[in-house]
Amino acid sequence: MTFTAPHVDWAHLSPVLIVLGAAAVSVLLEAFVPARRRRTVQLAFSAAALAGAIVAVAALWSGVKSSGGVRVLGTSLIVDGPTLVLQGTIALLALISLLIIADRTSTGEDAFAPSAASVPGSDYEELARRQGLAQTEVYPLVLFATGGMLIFPATGDLLTLFVALEVLSLPLYLLTGMARRRRLLSQEAAMKYFLLGAFASALMLFGIALVYGYAGSLSYADIATATQNPTGLDTLLLVGAVMVLAGLLFKIGAVPFHAWTPDVYQGAPTPITGFMAACTKVAAFGALLRVVYTVIPGLQWDLDVVMWTVTILTMVVGTVIAMVQTDMKRLLAYSSVAHAGFILTGVVALDAAGVSAVLFYLLVYGAATIGAFGVVWLVRERDADGVILGEATHLSQWAGIGRRHPWHAGAFALFLFSFAGIPLTAGFVGKFGVFSAAVDGGAWPLALLGVLASAGAAFFYVRIVVLMFFSDAPADEAPAAAAAPEETDVAVGGGTSPAVATLVAEKAPALTTTVVGTEGFAAVAIGLCALTTIVLGVFPTPVLDVISHMSTFLP
Amino acid sequence: MSLDHYLVLAGILFSIGAATVLLRRNAIIVFMGVELMLNATNLLLVTFSRLHGQLDGQVLAFFVMVVAAAEVVVGLAIIVSIYRTRRSASVDDVNLLKS
Fold first, then answer.
1. From B89, which residue of chain A is nearest by alpha-carbon distance?
2. Which end of chain A is more exposed for a tag (fewer CB within 10 A), N or C?
3. What pLDDT score was predicted for residue A167?
4. How many domains in chain A?
């Protein structure tokens, strides 16, 4: 018996291979590099890997543009135009987030617990903090997650889809639980994310099994062919397709699968929140686009009801609940739910313009999101002795910050304007693209509702800008007084012990809000995001052209 | 035994798992519910694989087992760290994040 080696097109796998290979090496670095130099080495290595992935995407670009796309490893991965655009976007956004993840404040603190395994409030935690330990495992975890995200939009069969989903999710569950401050919230968020995420991927897997039972194949192309020849098992296919969609919509954070979003976004370390809000959404929308456009167009009549309902609910619920939030991270979380709805209008449109509009929207939304969470990470509480504490996430604490820190507040306002879709920011071009694609695709009620929801969303974005620039900074006691009773309620209502309560309510009286000084990586990242938001808002044409030439899926 | 029997059995197991996830309070038990859902799916995959006379479904079942093992590693790490903090693994006690 002779062994026939499979033909593997290594070149087209290179963006994925670079990142996953670097992740594996990065685990070894963790073991062999001395602790003192570990952070520098890991940061340089991870950044080089992500930059390498961007270069690899650029190198493949013209070949794929002329050939229209390549199937790799049988039908497992499809490297076509949208894949490359999405992989480039994910690698770029991950590189920018990495800068914020790596940054340390002037007191040498990064966003992660010195030892994530230590019990919060224990002697060991205090010892680890004084020793200046750092959890540099963050870097390989981020690389593994990014590797999964690079595979996710390129998947050509349901097996790869499931594996990529898990590869991107599992590191994120861990990263969520590693915050330096408010560790109980962080661990709780990790548990909620994990249990709900595992539940959603089990649902999706059951859907995959049903679709496989109907089509007799896992590959997208075969399933698409099978959907056109009705057999006696149509129910299997329909139920299976809905369950697969549910799994993808969970990752996107669409209503009614959004329950995890606010909790996880609030509890996770803020740089990680930015990373997963931007990159996971790009990857999951990429996978959803491919499934909707190439696998189940034959089911469009049956599934339109589902997709329309989800889109409408997502826009309305996200916008309405965001209006009543008092915590900055929760507000941004609900705003990201609303944005998922806006992007879904472009997905539902089901035409070529819809694909390029969604790809462009994902890029500009990702840049603004990472920048916004970067600013949130820098805005801190300071006690009477000038010691910098955790993030000042209560809205009232942001009052008047624009006068004292005009650059940070100005960048934050820019990102909010982009979220709101104000002209001359990239968000406007993105929204215009998806809504006009929806109108062209016959989904004008969705576009109309989207415009109304955007107007509603603009209300709370502008309210924050007004709060930052046009309201007076409260007297020293005011923000603490506003925030403290609420924190106590939470702790007592939770029935937790007094020790836990003090851990949660780490606010002391007389807290002021300040912007913390850092090593500067975060400032660079925020600057890059702001630059992207402005440039793509004022001169979007070149990028739109490039994307529209790369927006055809290989069937 | 016809195809239907296997489908119904897998459906019942999956529903028991899903109900466990939604109704039980102990994080470990909830997690066991997820595992039951995954294994019900494996039964379904192997059944369909036999029905279609090819191995794709069985291969996917192996992948599911590996992924489930990886999920256990991550999940138990998170649940244990919460248990060490609070001396409780109940999902009801974990309610500092309000909505």
1. A191
2. N
3. 95
4. 2
Q: CA separation (Å) from A502 to A39, A167, A226, A433?
A: 32, 36, 60, 49
User: Which residues in B lie closer than 8 A to residue A209 (C-beta atoms)?
Assistant: 10, 41, 44-45, 48, 57, 60
Q: Which residues contact A322 (CB under 8 A, 6 or more apart)?
A: A331, A334, A335, A337, A338, A457, A460
> Do A497 and A531 share a domain, yes or no?
no
The minimal CB distance from B52 to the residues A166, A183, A216 is found for A216
Contact predicate A374/A271, CB 8 Å: yes
The string of pLDDT tens digits covering residues A101-130 is: 999 988 888 889 888 888 888 888 888 888
Do A390 and A492 sit in the same domain of this protein? no
Helix (H, G, I), strand (E, B) or coil at A416: helix
| A1 found inside a domain | no
ipTM of the complex: 0.93
Contact B89/A at CB under 8 A: no
Tell me: the pLDDT tens digits for A75-109?
899 999 999 999 999 999 999 999 999 999 888 88
* pLDDT at A474 (0 to 100): 64
CATH architecture of the domain formed by B3-86 = Orthogonal Bundle (1.10)
Q: CB of B98 within 8 Å of any CB in chain A?
A: yes
Round to whole Å and give the CA distance between A121 and A104: 22
Ranges of each domain in chain B: 3-86
Domain that holds residue A15: 10-476+511-548
Candidates A162, A188, A265: best to mutate against B (most CBs of B within 10 A) is A188
pTM: 0.91
Instruction: For residue A170, give every residue at least 6 positions away whose Cβ sits within 8 Å of its Cβ, in sequence order, or none.
Output: A144, B70, B71, B74
Same-domain check for residues A436 and A494: no
Residue A366 and residue A506 in one domain:
no
